[in-house]
Amino acid sequence: MAACKPEKIEKELPVDIKESKLVLLSIFPEIAFSGSTLDISWYSENIDFLSFYIKTGNSDWQIAADGIEAGTGLIHLTMPNWFEKGELLTIKLSGGGKEVIRENIKTENLILPKSIEIVKIVPEEAIAGDTLGVYFLSENISVLTIELRDSQDDLLLIRNAMPSTGFLQFPLPDFFNRGEQLSLKISGDGESDIIENILTKNALWIETVRYPSLQSINGMAKVHPDWEDIWLKRKSEKEILALSSVCTHSGCRIDLFSTGDHFYCSCHGSKFSSDGLVLNGPANEPLKTYKCEWVADEKFRLIY
């Protein structure tokens, strides 16, 4: 009877498994300041990507950074904008089945200087029915409030704005009382800046089809805004000269002479050319002029 030969058992060689490693090297600064950054440096082996988490007190973990390449590195973690008094921060690094936790990091609220500055307004005068633009600067302000008030401190407009916006435009009322002055105030978080004594002007739309004399060059016409008559002279296709009807000598009303080539004052005999220049005293200053803008074909805007 033949002897049984024992089966040959091949021994399995151990697989070379590389162990992963994760070490938190340092945290700088040692105190976490609100709204600032915390610098975290680490060292890792055999880990592809890392995730960073933070939490305060008994709150849940919040992802601060994810999918960060491992190896040796440094990351700047942004801290919350505000910490409760005595609150402690916890940081966790995880990846490749490993995690490292650093607890009891002290927190402190960083009080940043706040400021608001109105740089300028455009235009410098508020024109009724138009818009007023304001350029401003702000630092560390959460929400801005813009207020527009009249001479009696009555509120005309109020609007909130994000502080990152450096320019805002808002509509103006359709009409201002004579001599009205406005104030513009921007405020937020206890800080404010204000521009006062903003002059106001009204606007009158001039359509020359309503004034036959203005259809031709050098033609004259009189319009009647709210508190003062204004004389208009067609200088060219796109230009109208607007002249005050108030004599510069003593404030009497002037009128257009019958020949239509000059103005005269019946109070003291002053004469002015149709362009408003002094021809005869006692007045020694030309007539006041107003801005009259060409808008489109046969349409102008008189600002007074």
Question: Can you give me a brief rundown of this structure?
Answer:
The chain has three domains: 21-108, Sandwich (Immunoglobulin-like); 115-201, Sandwich (Immunoglobulin-like); 204-303, 3-layer Sandwich (Rieske Iron-sulfur Protein). Helix content is 0%, strand content 54%.
* Strand-pairing-aware structural class: mainly beta
The strands making up the biggest β-sheet line up spatially as: 17-26-25-20-19-18
Report the uncertain regions: none
Structurally, the number of domains stands at 3
Name of the CATH superfamily of the largest domain: Rieske [2Fe-2S] iron-sulphur domain
Number of strands: 26
- CATH class of the largest domain reads Mainly Beta
Gyration radius from CA atoms, angstroms: 39 Å
Q: Distance between the terminal alpha carbons, to the nearest Å?
A: 132 Å
DSSP helix fraction = under 10%
What coarse outline follows from CA principal-axis ratios?
A: rod-shaped
Strand percent estimate: over 45%
Summarize the main sheet.
Answer: 6 strands, antiparallel
Question: What is the CATH third-level topology name of the largest domain?
Answer: Rieske Iron-sulfur Protein
Number of helical elements: 0
**At CATH's second level, what is the architecture of the largest domain?**
3-layer Sandwich
Element-by-element helix/strand order: EEEEEEEEEEEEEEEEEEEEEEEEEE
Summary keywords:
6-stranded antiparallel sheet, Rieske Iron-sulfur Protein, Immunoglobulin-like, single chain, 5-stranded mixed sheet, 304 residues, 0% helix, 3 domains, mainly beta
